Amino acid sequence: MAAAAAKNVILIDGSYLEGGGQILRNATALSCLLSQPIRVNNIRAGRSTPGLRPQHLSGIELVRDLCGGKLEGGKVSSTEICFTPGAIQGGNFLADTHTAGSICLLMQVSIPCLLFSPGPAQLTLKGGTNAEFAPQIDYTTMVFRPIAERMGVKYTCDIKRRGYYPKGGGEVRITTSPVAMVSPIDLMDRGQITNVTGRAWVAGSLPVKLAHLASKAATALIKREFPDVPVDIEAVQEPRHAAFGNGNGIVIMAETSTGCRLGGSALGKRGVQAEEVGRKAAQMLVKNMQHGGCVDEYLQDQLILFMALAKGKSSVRSGPITLHTKTAIFIAETLTKAKFTVTPEGDPETGTNIIECEGIGLENRHG
């Protein structure tokens, strides 16, 4: 670590606020984009298993590979890393968690970097497509990607094979195209909720009946709270060739008249009835439909990094501010000159909040 310390390295406390892998992902991505060396210590200090886990390490190594950077302390269980970025390149890259670690979190750390590459890039990402403590791949395609496209973020997502806990085995191909810069976003008018769609799924040896039960339970709960909103949640059995292992879950989305998208999801577990899985996802969605914001709690924090990079002012009306969002804002302000303001509208713990940011207008030097 001593050699890297001689450079203008920004020190980040990995135990601050949310204190998990999100600090690593956002800090490493911004380090790469801004050509700013960083040192992160106290990594996941408050977790039951502190330090880097395989999924965190594979994400950092992916960013290292796509910019030809230097990573010190990059091993499982390490509580401190030093990352010195190089120049972002296009091309083909591979990241494999070798576990059920989330492919979606690999996407979160790498896609912002590749937007500023000199040319197209293809990522082959291996791990879990539908993992706990992370967005499901269906959420990323149904909710995140259409909203990110408003900011100029364009990529294709080809799900080659789904993989589940505990073995993973999923594979997703991502193709990105570079941008000149990221556009600001205005998500202030929620409009009216027009419909709810979704996907309840089973894979492996689990019977498709579980998907139907989850879909029916979710639909009933949503219709009880929003009787006039059409609900269509399909129940599917994943093809044998397109999934590795057993799994079940549900992802649902509410669309609004102004193009906002709000999500809810849940994964099945041994001993948990399929109806309960459906109700859990529906409760999450209904909560997001009721608070009146334009984004759910997951999209809320995923937009922060892009708002910081954008050229111009972004404004987002959200529900209650999450710890992940506070952490994302802290990292963005630490590593960029972007300034965020959060203005409560009523009770900040239950009502809506306005998140505003004057972005730094990062330009693609290859553009």
Q: What attributes does this structure have?
A:
alpha/beta, 367 residues, disordered N terminus, globular
Structure description:
The protein is of the alpha/beta class and 367 residues long. The chain has ten helices and 17 strands. It has helices spanning 2-5, 21-34, 54-67, 103-114, 137-149, 209-225, 274-291, 297-302, 304-309, 323-335, and strands spanning 10-13, 38-41, 70-72, 81-84, 91-96, 121-127, 155-163, 170-176, 186-187, 193-203, 231-237, 243-244, 247-256, 261-267, 313-318, 339-345, 352-358. The strands form four sheets. Strands 5-6-8-7-12 form a five-stranded mixed beta sheet, covered by helices on one side. A four-stranded mixed beta sheet has the order 1-2-4-3, with helices on one face. A four-stranded mixed beta sheet has the order 9-15-17-16, covered by helices on one side. Helix 6 (209-225) links the parallel strand 10 and strand 11. Helix 2 runs parallel beside helix 10. The model is unreliable at 1-6 (pLDDT under 50).
Span of the ends, CA to CA: 34 Å
What is the succession of H and E elements?
Answer: HEHEHEEEHEHEEEEHEEEEHHHEHEE
Task: Please provide the count of β strands.
Answer: 17
Strand proportion, as a percent range, falls in: 25-35%
Query: Strand sequence of the main sheet, in spatial order?
Result: 5-6-8-7-12
What is the radius of gyration? 20 Å
Helical content stands at 25-40%
What kind of assembly state do the chains in view correspond to?
A: single chain
**How would you classify the helix and strand content by structural class?**
alpha/beta
Taken from the alpha-carbon principal axes, the silhouette is globular
